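Sorry, I am new here, but would you mind making up a protein's amino acid sequence and the tokens describing how it folds?
***
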Amino acid sequence: MSEAAVDRGLVTRAQQGDQRAFEALVMKYQTRVKKLVARFVRPADVDDVTQEAFIKAYRALAKFRGDSAFYTWLYRIAVNTAKNHLVSQSRRPPNSDIDIEDAEFSDPGGRFRDNETPETSIATDELAEVVQKAIDSLPDELKTAILLREMEGLSYEEISSVMRCPIGTVRSRIFRAREAIENQIKHYMQGESGA
């Protein structure tokens, strides 16, 4: 049975009042939703915002028609809940609150970790910091699109559903986000080679 079919079954049971079915959905997606929320809010607020997202999902479950995958629908709720939390706090996502280790960056040098020197370790950490700052400085719509694609692994269609915009817009936002990040990396690398 596919993941989507399992989710559909759990959603149907939860819509019929089976509390354990919804609890199974929460257990299945709690970590992924928490990681998503952590990209938007301060670490101290992650658990509360994640819980609020699941409460909103539970209350809206009767309206879920299955037009998209359940987790796509849930991610849309989580992103909107995180953004609403930021608005209620009258601030934007903090730049320094996202732990580079938890951001799930791919470590291109990871296979050479045994041969790593202190210099390469520092350079890798600095580059990860440059990338994170570049992501943090993106406008919200670009940041959301790139995080959903690169960090959460959602397809363009799923991102389109989460962000409620055409797939062409999603592609454009991801392209522009990648371009902005690449420019920051180039500036960093030019600074490194010029030193």
Notes: DSSP finds eight helices and no strands in the chain. The radius of gyration is 19 Å. Residues 92-115 have pLDDT under 50 and may be disordered.
